[in-house]
Design brief:
Blueprint: H1 6-36, H2 42-49, H3 51-70, H4 72-92, H5 96-124, H6 129-136, H7 139-157, H8 162-167, H9 170-180, H10 189-193, H11 197-203, H12 207-222, H13 234-253, H14 259-279, H15 281-285, H16 292-308, H17 310-317, H18 319-339, H19 343-357, H20 360-371, H21 376-404, H22 407-414, H23 416-435
Helix pairs in contact: 1-5, 1-7, 1-9, 2-5, 2-21, 3-4, 3-5, 3-21, 4-5, 4-9, 5-6, 5-21, 6-20, 7-16, 12-13, 12-21, 14-20, 14-21, 14-23, 16-19, 17-18, 18-19, 18-20, 18-22, 18-23, 20-21, 21-22
Protein backbone atom coordinates (compact mmCIF):
# COMPACT_ATOMS: atom_id res chain seq x y z
CA UNK A 1 0.00 0.00 0.00
CA UNK A 2 1.70 3.10 -1.29
CA UNK A 3 2.41 5.95 1.16
CA UNK A 4 0.65 4.10 3.99
CA UNK A 5 2.63 3.89 7.24
CA UNK A 6 1.39 0.50 8.48
CA UNK A 7 3.39 0.55 11.71
CA UNK A 8 2.30 4.05 12.76
CA UNK A 9 -1.36 3.39 11.95
CA UNK A 10 -1.31 0.10 13.85
CA UNK A 11 0.22 1.75 16.93
CA UNK A 12 -2.29 4.61 16.72
CA UNK A 13 -5.17 2.13 16.49
CA UNK A 14 -3.83 0.22 19.50
CA UNK A 15 -3.61 3.43 21.56
CA UNK A 16 -7.17 4.37 20.57
CA UNK A 17 -8.30 0.96 21.81
CA UNK A 18 -6.21 1.54 24.95
CA UNK A 19 -8.32 4.61 25.78
CA UNK A 20 -11.45 2.52 25.24
CA UNK A 21 -10.18 -0.21 27.55
CA UNK A 22 -9.06 2.11 30.35
CA UNK A 23 -12.61 3.53 30.51
CA UNK A 24 -13.83 0.00 31.31
CA UNK A 25 -11.36 -0.37 34.18
CA UNK A 26 -12.26 3.07 35.52
CA UNK A 27 -15.98 2.27 35.48
CA UNK A 28 -15.33 -0.95 37.37
CA UNK A 29 -13.51 1.09 40.05
CA UNK A 30 -15.74 4.16 40.39
CA UNK A 31 -18.90 2.04 40.58
CA UNK A 32 -18.35 1.95 44.33
CA UNK A 33 -17.88 5.74 44.49
CA UNK A 34 -21.24 6.45 42.88
CA UNK A 35 -22.83 3.91 45.20
CA UNK A 36 -21.35 5.14 48.50
CA UNK A 37 -20.74 8.86 47.83
CA UNK A 38 -23.64 9.69 45.52
CA UNK A 39 -26.28 7.25 46.78
CA UNK A 40 -27.01 5.33 43.55
CA UNK A 41 -28.28 1.76 43.77
CA UNK A 42 -26.43 -0.92 41.82
CA UNK A 43 -29.38 -1.24 39.45
CA UNK A 44 -29.26 2.54 38.80
CA UNK A 45 -25.52 2.32 38.19
CA UNK A 46 -26.16 -0.53 35.78
CA UNK A 47 -28.53 1.68 33.76
CA UNK A 48 -26.14 4.67 33.95
CA UNK A 49 -23.26 2.51 32.70
CA UNK A 50 -25.46 1.04 29.94
CA UNK A 51 -24.81 3.81 27.35
CA UNK A 52 -21.11 2.97 27.43
CA UNK A 53 -22.18 -0.29 25.82
CA UNK A 54 -25.21 0.53 23.65
CA UNK A 55 -23.63 3.88 22.67
CA UNK A 56 -20.68 1.77 21.58
CA UNK A 57 -23.13 -0.29 19.50
CA UNK A 58 -24.86 2.71 17.90
CA UNK A 59 -21.51 4.20 16.87
CA UNK A 60 -20.34 0.86 15.48
CA UNK A 61 -23.53 0.32 13.50
CA UNK A 62 -23.51 3.86 12.12
CA UNK A 63 -19.81 3.63 11.39
CA UNK A 64 -20.24 0.31 9.59
CA UNK A 65 -22.92 1.82 7.35
CA UNK A 66 -21.15 5.08 6.50
CA UNK A 67 -17.43 4.33 6.77
CA UNK A 68 -17.02 3.86 3.02
CA UNK A 69 -18.98 7.05 2.32
CA UNK A 70 -17.26 9.39 4.78
CA UNK A 71 -13.92 7.50 4.90
CA UNK A 72 -12.18 5.88 7.84
CA UNK A 73 -10.33 9.11 8.71
CA UNK A 74 -13.64 10.85 9.52
CA UNK A 75 -14.74 8.05 11.86
CA UNK A 76 -11.39 8.28 13.66
CA UNK A 77 -11.84 12.03 14.12
CA UNK A 78 -15.32 11.40 15.50
CA UNK A 79 -13.83 8.90 17.97
CA UNK A 80 -11.32 11.47 19.21
CA UNK A 81 -13.99 14.19 19.63
CA UNK A 82 -16.46 11.91 21.42
CA UNK A 83 -13.76 10.60 23.74
CA UNK A 84 -12.73 14.16 24.63
CA UNK A 85 -16.31 15.28 25.39
CA UNK A 86 -17.12 12.08 27.29
CA UNK A 87 -14.10 12.31 29.58
CA UNK A 88 -14.87 15.95 30.44
CA UNK A 89 -18.53 15.11 31.19
CA UNK A 90 -17.51 12.11 33.32
CA UNK A 91 -15.36 14.41 35.45
CA UNK A 92 -18.48 16.56 36.05
CA UNK A 93 -20.87 13.63 36.76
CA UNK A 94 -22.56 13.61 40.17
CA UNK A 95 -25.85 11.73 39.69
CA UNK A 96 -27.48 9.05 37.52
CA UNK A 97 -28.45 11.45 34.72
CA UNK A 98 -25.05 13.12 34.35
CA UNK A 99 -23.29 9.75 34.61
CA UNK A 100 -25.65 8.40 31.93
CA UNK A 101 -24.91 11.30 29.53
CA UNK A 102 -21.14 11.03 30.04
CA UNK A 103 -21.30 7.34 29.19
CA UNK A 104 -23.28 8.09 26.02
CA UNK A 105 -20.36 10.11 24.64
CA UNK A 106 -17.74 7.66 25.91
CA UNK A 107 -19.71 4.82 24.32
CA UNK A 108 -19.91 6.70 21.01
CA UNK A 109 -16.16 7.32 21.14
CA UNK A 110 -15.37 3.69 21.95
CA UNK A 111 -17.68 2.41 19.22
CA UNK A 112 -16.16 4.73 16.64
CA UNK A 113 -12.71 3.35 17.48
CA UNK A 114 -13.89 -0.21 16.81
CA UNK A 115 -15.90 0.79 13.72
CA UNK A 116 -12.82 2.41 12.18
CA UNK A 117 -9.97 0.25 13.44
CA UNK A 118 -11.28 -3.31 12.94
CA UNK A 119 -11.65 -2.86 9.14
CA UNK A 120 -8.47 -0.76 9.10
CA UNK A 121 -6.45 -3.63 10.63
CA UNK A 122 -8.05 -6.14 8.23
CA UNK A 123 -7.10 -3.86 5.32
CA UNK A 124 -3.55 -3.23 6.52
CA UNK A 125 -2.85 -6.95 7.02
CA UNK A 126 -4.98 -8.88 4.47
CA UNK A 127 -2.95 -12.10 4.81
CA UNK A 128 -2.92 -12.19 8.62
CA UNK A 129 -6.33 -10.79 9.56
CA UNK A 130 -7.26 -13.01 12.53
CA UNK A 131 -3.71 -12.93 13.93
CA UNK A 132 -3.39 -9.14 13.71
CA UNK A 133 -6.95 -8.55 14.98
CA UNK A 134 -5.99 -10.61 18.03
CA UNK A 135 -2.82 -8.53 18.45
CA UNK A 136 -4.82 -5.32 18.06
CA UNK A 137 -7.30 -6.56 20.66
CA UNK A 138 -4.44 -7.31 23.06
CA UNK A 139 -4.85 -3.66 24.00
CA UNK A 140 -8.36 -4.16 25.29
CA UNK A 141 -7.36 -6.44 28.17
CA UNK A 142 -3.97 -4.73 28.20
CA UNK A 143 -5.66 -1.38 28.71
CA UNK A 144 -7.80 -2.81 31.49
CA UNK A 145 -4.62 -4.06 33.18
CA UNK A 146 -3.13 -0.56 32.93
CA UNK A 147 -6.39 1.01 34.10
CA UNK A 148 -6.70 -1.44 36.98
CA UNK A 149 -3.14 -0.73 38.16
CA UNK A 150 -3.73 3.01 37.86
CA UNK A 151 -6.99 2.67 39.83
CA UNK A 152 -5.21 0.76 42.60
CA UNK A 153 -2.30 3.22 42.65
CA UNK A 154 -4.31 6.46 42.47
CA UNK A 155 -7.29 5.62 44.66
CA UNK A 156 -6.21 2.77 46.94
CA UNK A 157 -2.52 3.52 47.51
CA UNK A 158 -2.26 7.31 47.12
CA UNK A 159 -5.84 7.86 48.34
CA UNK A 160 -6.51 10.47 45.64
CA UNK A 161 -9.93 11.40 44.29
CA UNK A 162 -11.49 9.47 41.42
CA UNK A 163 -11.34 12.58 39.21
CA UNK A 164 -7.52 12.31 39.15
CA UNK A 165 -7.84 8.76 37.82
CA UNK A 166 -10.26 9.81 35.06
CA UNK A 167 -8.02 12.74 34.05
CA UNK A 168 -5.19 10.34 33.16
CA UNK A 169 -7.21 9.35 30.07
CA UNK A 170 -6.19 12.61 28.41
CA UNK A 171 -2.61 11.30 27.96
CA UNK A 172 -3.24 8.33 25.57
CA UNK A 173 -6.04 10.34 23.95
CA UNK A 174 -3.59 13.08 22.94
CA UNK A 175 -1.00 10.56 21.70
CA UNK A 176 -3.36 8.60 19.43
CA UNK A 177 -4.76 11.86 18.04
CA UNK A 178 -1.21 12.94 17.16
CA UNK A 179 -0.28 9.60 15.54
CA UNK A 180 -3.33 9.58 13.27
CA UNK A 181 -2.87 13.24 12.35
CA UNK A 182 -1.94 13.76 8.70
CA UNK A 183 -1.67 10.06 7.84
CA UNK A 184 -3.00 8.44 4.67
CA UNK A 185 -5.73 5.95 5.62
CA UNK A 186 -6.36 3.16 3.07
CA UNK A 187 -9.79 2.24 1.69
CA UNK A 188 -11.57 -0.64 3.45
CA UNK A 189 -11.09 -4.18 2.18
CA UNK A 190 -14.64 -4.25 0.74
CA UNK A 191 -14.00 -1.18 -1.42
CA UNK A 192 -10.56 -2.31 -2.56
CA UNK A 193 -11.90 -5.77 -3.52
CA UNK A 194 -14.85 -4.34 -5.47
CA UNK A 195 -17.70 -5.79 -3.37
CA UNK A 196 -20.82 -3.63 -3.76
CA UNK A 197 -22.65 -2.04 -0.83
CA UNK A 198 -25.75 -4.08 -1.69
CA UNK A 199 -23.76 -7.32 -1.63
CA UNK A 200 -22.26 -6.38 1.74
CA UNK A 201 -25.78 -5.89 3.16
CA UNK A 202 -26.94 -9.19 1.66
CA UNK A 203 -24.05 -11.12 3.23
CA UNK A 204 -25.12 -9.99 6.69
CA UNK A 205 -27.98 -12.44 6.09
CA UNK A 206 -30.89 -10.58 7.63
CA UNK A 207 -29.66 -6.99 8.09
CA UNK A 208 -33.03 -5.29 8.66
CA UNK A 209 -34.22 -7.87 11.20
CA UNK A 210 -30.88 -7.70 13.00
CA UNK A 211 -30.85 -3.90 13.14
CA UNK A 212 -34.47 -3.74 14.35
CA UNK A 213 -33.69 -6.31 17.05
CA UNK A 214 -30.67 -4.36 18.25
CA UNK A 215 -32.75 -1.14 18.44
CA UNK A 216 -35.29 -2.95 20.65
CA UNK A 217 -32.44 -4.28 22.81
CA UNK A 218 -31.10 -0.74 23.25
CA UNK A 219 -34.55 0.45 24.41
CA UNK A 220 -34.77 -2.42 26.91
CA UNK A 221 -31.27 -1.61 28.20
CA UNK A 222 -32.06 2.12 28.56
CA UNK A 223 -35.61 2.23 29.95
CA UNK A 224 -36.03 0.62 33.40
CA UNK A 225 -39.77 0.09 32.89
CA UNK A 226 -38.98 -2.16 29.92
CA UNK A 227 -36.74 -4.49 31.93
CA UNK A 228 -37.07 -8.15 31.00
CA UNK A 229 -39.15 -10.48 33.16
CA UNK A 230 -37.94 -14.02 32.50
CA UNK A 231 -40.79 -15.45 34.56
CA UNK A 232 -43.09 -14.26 31.77
CA UNK A 233 -43.54 -16.06 28.45
CA UNK A 234 -43.19 -12.86 26.39
CA UNK A 235 -39.35 -12.74 26.10
CA UNK A 236 -39.36 -16.28 24.73
CA UNK A 237 -42.13 -15.48 22.25
CA UNK A 238 -40.08 -12.46 21.09
CA UNK A 239 -37.03 -14.65 20.51
CA UNK A 240 -39.14 -17.06 18.46
CA UNK A 241 -40.50 -14.22 16.31
CA UNK A 242 -36.97 -12.90 15.69
CA UNK A 243 -35.78 -16.35 14.58
CA UNK A 244 -38.68 -16.65 12.13
CA UNK A 245 -37.99 -13.19 10.69
CA UNK A 246 -34.29 -14.01 10.29
CA UNK A 247 -35.20 -17.17 8.39
CA UNK A 248 -37.64 -15.32 6.13
CA UNK A 249 -35.31 -12.40 5.35
CA UNK A 250 -32.14 -14.49 5.07
CA UNK A 251 -33.35 -17.55 3.22
CA UNK A 252 -36.56 -16.54 1.42
CA UNK A 253 -35.65 -12.96 0.47
CA UNK A 254 -31.84 -12.74 0.35
CA UNK A 255 -31.39 -16.46 -0.48
CA UNK A 256 -28.12 -16.66 1.41
CA UNK A 257 -26.51 -18.69 4.18
CA UNK A 258 -27.46 -17.79 7.75
CA UNK A 259 -23.86 -18.21 8.90
CA UNK A 260 -23.54 -14.55 9.89
CA UNK A 261 -26.72 -14.49 12.06
CA UNK A 262 -25.42 -17.61 13.87
CA UNK A 263 -22.07 -15.91 14.49
CA UNK A 264 -23.98 -12.86 15.74
CA UNK A 265 -26.00 -14.97 18.19
CA UNK A 266 -22.76 -16.38 19.58
CA UNK A 267 -21.31 -12.86 19.86
CA UNK A 268 -24.21 -11.77 22.09
CA UNK A 269 -23.34 -14.50 24.58
CA UNK A 270 -19.53 -14.27 24.40
CA UNK A 271 -19.62 -10.50 24.99
CA UNK A 272 -22.05 -10.79 27.90
CA UNK A 273 -19.95 -13.55 29.51
CA UNK A 274 -16.73 -11.54 29.31
CA UNK A 275 -17.81 -7.93 29.79
CA UNK A 276 -20.77 -8.42 32.13
CA UNK A 277 -18.56 -10.28 34.60
CA UNK A 278 -15.58 -7.91 34.44
CA UNK A 279 -17.71 -4.75 34.74
CA UNK A 280 -19.22 -6.04 38.00
CA UNK A 281 -15.92 -7.48 39.28
CA UNK A 282 -15.83 -5.09 42.25
CA UNK A 283 -19.30 -6.02 43.51
CA UNK A 284 -18.94 -9.72 42.67
CA UNK A 285 -15.66 -10.33 44.51
CA UNK A 286 -15.41 -7.60 47.15
CA UNK A 287 -15.82 -10.10 50.04
CA UNK A 288 -13.38 -12.73 48.74
CA UNK A 289 -10.37 -11.55 50.73
CA UNK A 290 -8.52 -9.87 47.86
CA UNK A 291 -8.78 -6.47 46.17
CA UNK A 292 -11.06 -6.92 43.12
CA UNK A 293 -8.79 -4.60 41.12
CA UNK A 294 -6.01 -7.15 41.54
CA UNK A 295 -8.34 -9.82 40.17
CA UNK A 296 -9.21 -7.56 37.25
CA UNK A 297 -5.52 -7.01 36.50
CA UNK A 298 -4.81 -10.77 36.67
CA UNK A 299 -7.77 -11.63 34.42
CA UNK A 300 -7.02 -9.01 31.78
CA UNK A 301 -3.26 -9.61 31.98
CA UNK A 302 -3.77 -13.27 31.09
CA UNK A 303 -6.11 -12.21 28.28
CA UNK A 304 -3.54 -9.78 26.87
CA UNK A 305 -0.77 -12.41 26.83
CA UNK A 306 -3.07 -15.01 25.33
CA UNK A 307 -4.23 -12.72 22.54
CA UNK A 308 -0.70 -11.71 21.64
CA UNK A 309 0.29 -15.35 21.06
CA UNK A 310 -3.05 -16.31 19.50
CA UNK A 311 -1.66 -16.85 16.00
CA UNK A 312 -0.10 -20.27 16.66
CA UNK A 313 -3.10 -21.57 18.60
CA UNK A 314 -5.58 -20.48 15.91
CA UNK A 315 -3.40 -22.07 13.23
CA UNK A 316 -3.40 -25.43 15.08
CA UNK A 317 -7.04 -25.54 16.18
CA UNK A 318 -8.79 -23.16 13.69
CA UNK A 319 -11.03 -20.33 14.99
CA UNK A 320 -14.10 -22.46 15.80
CA UNK A 321 -11.99 -24.98 17.71
CA UNK A 322 -10.53 -22.15 19.79
CA UNK A 323 -14.03 -20.78 20.50
CA UNK A 324 -15.41 -24.18 21.53
CA UNK A 325 -12.52 -24.82 23.91
CA UNK A 326 -12.87 -21.31 25.30
CA UNK A 327 -16.56 -21.88 26.10
CA UNK A 328 -15.77 -25.02 28.10
CA UNK A 329 -13.05 -23.27 30.10
CA UNK A 330 -15.20 -20.15 30.66
CA UNK A 331 -17.98 -22.34 32.08
CA UNK A 332 -15.56 -23.97 34.51
CA UNK A 333 -14.09 -20.56 35.45
CA UNK A 334 -17.46 -18.99 36.30
CA UNK A 335 -18.53 -22.04 38.28
CA UNK A 336 -15.26 -21.98 40.26
CA UNK A 337 -15.67 -18.24 40.94
CA UNK A 338 -19.18 -18.91 42.26
CA UNK A 339 -17.81 -21.25 44.94
CA UNK A 340 -14.51 -19.45 45.63
CA UNK A 341 -13.77 -18.34 49.17
CA UNK A 342 -10.43 -16.76 49.97
CA UNK A 343 -7.68 -15.05 47.99
CA UNK A 344 -5.87 -18.11 46.59
CA UNK A 345 -8.98 -19.90 45.33
CA UNK A 346 -10.37 -16.67 43.87
CA UNK A 347 -7.13 -15.96 42.00
CA UNK A 348 -7.02 -19.49 40.58
CA UNK A 349 -10.67 -19.37 39.53
CA UNK A 350 -10.21 -15.93 37.95
CA UNK A 351 -7.22 -17.25 35.97
CA UNK A 352 -9.32 -20.12 34.59
CA UNK A 353 -12.09 -17.67 33.65
CA UNK A 354 -9.52 -15.39 31.94
CA UNK A 355 -8.22 -18.24 29.77
CA UNK A 356 -11.82 -19.05 28.86
CA UNK A 357 -12.86 -15.58 27.70
CA UNK A 358 -9.44 -14.60 26.34
CA UNK A 359 -10.06 -15.33 22.66
CA UNK A 360 -13.81 -14.69 22.47
CA UNK A 361 -13.99 -11.14 21.12
CA UNK A 362 -11.21 -10.95 18.48
CA UNK A 363 -11.77 -14.50 17.25
CA UNK A 364 -15.49 -13.82 16.73
CA UNK A 365 -14.56 -10.77 14.63
CA UNK A 366 -11.96 -12.91 12.84
CA UNK A 367 -14.52 -15.65 12.06
CA UNK A 368 -16.76 -13.09 10.34
CA UNK A 369 -13.83 -11.63 8.42
CA UNK A 370 -12.52 -15.05 7.36
CA UNK A 371 -15.74 -16.92 6.58
CA UNK A 372 -18.15 -14.10 5.65
CA UNK A 373 -15.65 -11.63 4.12
CA UNK A 374 -18.25 -9.91 1.93
CA UNK A 375 -20.05 -8.68 5.05
CA UNK A 376 -17.18 -6.17 5.20
CA UNK A 377 -16.87 -3.36 7.73
CA UNK A 378 -20.63 -3.53 8.32
CA UNK A 379 -20.42 -7.14 9.49
CA UNK A 380 -17.59 -6.36 11.91
CA UNK A 381 -19.46 -3.34 13.25
CA UNK A 382 -22.72 -5.25 13.71
CA UNK A 383 -20.92 -8.01 15.62
CA UNK A 384 -19.08 -5.67 17.96
CA UNK A 385 -22.06 -3.35 18.39
CA UNK A 386 -24.51 -6.13 19.15
CA UNK A 387 -22.07 -7.61 21.66
CA UNK A 388 -22.01 -4.35 23.59
CA UNK A 389 -25.80 -3.95 23.41
CA UNK A 390 -26.16 -7.43 24.91
CA UNK A 391 -23.79 -6.41 27.69
CA UNK A 392 -25.79 -3.24 28.37
CA UNK A 393 -28.87 -5.44 28.85
CA UNK A 394 -27.02 -7.80 31.17
CA UNK A 395 -25.56 -5.10 33.46
CA UNK A 396 -28.78 -4.01 35.26
CA UNK A 397 -29.96 -7.63 35.42
CA UNK A 398 -26.68 -8.58 37.10
CA UNK A 399 -26.82 -5.52 39.38
CA UNK A 400 -30.28 -6.46 40.60
CA UNK A 401 -29.23 -10.10 41.03
CA UNK A 402 -26.18 -9.11 43.09
CA UNK A 403 -28.40 -7.06 45.44
CA UNK A 404 -31.20 -9.64 45.76
CA UNK A 405 -29.53 -13.06 45.34
CA UNK A 406 -25.86 -12.33 46.08
CA UNK A 407 -22.63 -12.54 44.04
CA UNK A 408 -22.26 -16.32 44.08
CA UNK A 409 -25.73 -17.01 42.69
CA UNK A 410 -25.19 -14.32 40.05
CA UNK A 411 -21.94 -15.94 38.91
CA UNK A 412 -23.60 -19.36 38.85
CA UNK A 413 -26.42 -18.01 36.69
CA UNK A 414 -23.92 -16.37 34.32
CA UNK A 415 -22.25 -19.75 33.72
CA UNK A 416 -25.36 -20.77 31.75
CA UNK A 417 -24.25 -18.48 28.89
CA UNK A 418 -21.01 -20.35 27.99
CA UNK A 419 -22.90 -23.67 28.34
CA UNK A 420 -25.23 -22.49 25.55
CA UNK A 421 -22.14 -21.40 23.59
CA UNK A 422 -20.67 -24.91 23.75
CA UNK A 423 -23.69 -26.20 21.83
CA UNK A 424 -23.70 -23.22 19.44
CA UNK A 425 -20.00 -23.53 18.59
CA UNK A 426 -20.33 -27.26 17.89
CA UNK A 427 -23.04 -26.35 15.37
CA UNK A 428 -20.95 -23.49 13.93
CA UNK A 429 -17.95 -25.81 13.51
CA UNK A 430 -20.03 -28.38 11.62
CA UNK A 431 -21.49 -25.71 9.31
CA UNK A 432 -18.09 -24.19 8.53
CA UNK A 433 -16.52 -27.58 7.79
CA UNK A 434 -19.31 -28.31 5.30
CA UNK A 435 -19.18 -24.87 3.72
CA UNK A 436 -15.36 -24.67 3.68
CA UNK A 437 -14.07 -28.24 3.19
CA UNK A 438 -10.41 -27.17 3.51
CA UNK A 439 -11.02 -26.00 7.09
CA UNK A 440 -9.36 -28.29 9.62
Amino acid sequence: MENVNQKRLFIAACLALLVTAITFAIRAKIEGVFSTDYGLTKEQIGYAFGPAFWGFAVAMFAGGFIIDLVKTKTIIRMAFGMHLIGIVLLLLAKDMTSLFIANVFIGFGNGSVEAACNPLIATLFPNNKTKMLNRFHVWFPGGIVIGGILAWLVMDTLNLRWEILVSLLFIPLAIYGFLFWGQKIPETERVSSGVSYKEMMRNVGAPFTIIATVIVMILIASVPSLSLNFDSIYPYIAVGIILILVLIEGRAINKISLLFPLVLFCMLLTASTELGTTQWINALLETNGINPMIILVVVTGIMAIGRYFAGGLIHRLNPTGVLLGSSVIATVGLWLLSISNGAAMTLLSAAVFAVGVCYFWPTMIGVASEYVPKSGALGMSILGGAGFVATSMVLPIMGKSIETSGPQTTLRNMSILPVILIIAFIGLSIIIKKKFPKTK
